[in-house]
Amino acid sequence: MDMGVVVRSSRPFAMVDEITKGSSAAADGLQLGNQIVKFGNMKIGENLVQKLTTEAQINQSHAMLVVVMGQGVFINLTIKPNSWQCHDLLGKPTMRS
To answer: Which of 44, 32, 33 is nearest to 7 (CA)?
Structure first.
């Protein structure tokens, strides 16, 4: 995979509406308001949250390409999805047993 390729023909399908301090998303450069254009090899369609979760699980602890639009420009980011401090791979709180 060429991490230098920018996807210019795609439209954003999701927006980053929360970034938690200390998360892998914050460390990897995602910013509040970024619009997600590409998330690994995920195909856009129904069940978007499930597809995002599955793609994050497949790539857990491995580098994956995420292309976002921020302030009108496309930005290539390499992120490593990780769960952390009672949060799942997408940053949602999980219950402790």
So the answer is: 44
Q: Which amino acid is at 96?
A: R
pLDDT at position 76 over 90: yes
CA distance 13 to 55: 15
Partners of 68 in the β-ladder: 36, 75
Q: What is the pLDDT of residues 24-61, one digit of tens each?
A: 788 889 999 999 999 999 888 788 888 888 898 888 88
**Domains of the chain: residue spans and CATH:** 1-97 (2.30.42.10)
Other Cβ atoms less than 10 A from the Cβ of 28: the count is 16
Q: Specify the 3-state DSSP secondary structure of 94.
A: coil
Q: Which two tokens stand for residue 39?
A: 């998330």
d(CA 16, CA 12): 11
Q: What is the pTM of this model?
A: 0.74
